[in-house]
Amino acid sequence: MNKRIIILGISAIFLLWSCGAGNSRNGADDSHEHHDHATEIGHDHEAELHGHESGLHAGHNHGTETGHNHGTEGAGHSDEIVISPEKAAAVGIATETVSPGRFREVIHTSGEILPAAGDESTIVATTDGTISFAENYTEGMAVGAGQEIFAILSGNLQDGNRIEKARIAYITAKEEYERASRLTDSRIVSQKEFVTIKENYENARLAYEALRPSKSGNGVAVQSPFKGYIKNLAVKQGDFVTTGTPLATISQNRHLVLEADLSQKDYARRYSITGANFTTAYSDRTYSTADLGGKLLSIGKSQNEGEYYMPVSFSILNTADLIPGAFAEIWLLCSEKDNVITLPLSAITEEQGLYFVYLRLDEQCYKKQEVTLGANDGQRTEILKGLAAGDNVVVKGAYNVKLASASNAIPAHTHNH
User: Fold this and answer.
1) 83-88-94-97 Cα dihedral, nearest 10 degrees
2) Which residues contact 115 (CB under 8 A, 6 or more apart)?
3) How far is CA 232 from CA 93, 174, 183, 235, 246, in A?
4) What is the rounded distance in angstroms from the CA atom of residue 329 to the CA atom of residue 101?
5) Rounded CA gap, 311 and 20, in Å?
6) Contact 208, 167 (CB under 8 A)
7) Tell me: the pLDDT tens digits for 216-266?
């Protein structure tokens, strides 16, 4: 009985202890869960606060960044080129304000510069003999009127020295003429005989004077007929020539003819042609028939068989060292058009088949502008698109502006429009 009581008591104590331990574990679990929940809430709250802070920070940065970028964009343009006024003056940059005006229609062709009739003379041998140059003459050298160029020597020929023989004949005829003149009054020499003697004297004189003695006195002198230059030499030292052989061509080079080739497709516009501009292969200069005292001489009325062009000829004065025989690029000037925007050819630059000019925006800022070209007259070109009246365009030194643009070393520029 007592044993049973003791066993029941121990069992009750064990049961009570088990319930307390369970409650303690439950409380600990509950406490842990509450702690985890609180921690999670705290972290979430912190994350939210941090996110809010980050949002504020991001918003600030965005505003600053946007404001800065916008400010920079508003202050400068990436396509602007900055050149200081001092540097622009040093490299010769000059501008022109665009203004519509009158412009001539043109026909672009080619042609040749020819000597004018009477402006050249070919000198020939006046007797048989061998050539001796009076000086070391070459083509292109200037000569004066009456200047000796050749001596024709005939002393080693079978007929002997021609000039000496002519001199003797002239002296003999002169003496005979003078004697007959004194005897005519006394009727010793008849009038008929006197006429014959006088004729022989005149012929001998002309023959001798035609054979002007050279400076050395050993031959016949060949002289330049006028002041000019030696265009070509047809002989060389020691050549044998006969009377009438061409020796050289002397050109005055004062009057020339510009002969342009007019295509059949442009023939309908022939009556509107009034002048021409042209350039040569040996010079960058553009010449104008108006500036050279030019005058339209003729327009071909027909063409040779097998040829596609007809000649248009202008007479011009050679005041610009033009060379006869040179080929020329020619712009025939026709009727004029009104209200046309044009620029000097020096203002145009070309890149991969596109054409550009440079606008001056202010005293140190320039901008590249694409343009569409129309006809040109050899000096100025028509601008069909890309410019408006009032634009300030670089007309001298455009390639210097292009080089400054390509250097990519231009500092930032704050230019407001």
Assistant:
1) 30
2) 231, 251, 253, 255, 256, 257, 324, 325
3) 44, 39, 53, 9, 11
4) 25
5) 131
6) yes
7) 777 888 999 988 889 889 999 999 999 899 999 998 888 999 999 999 888
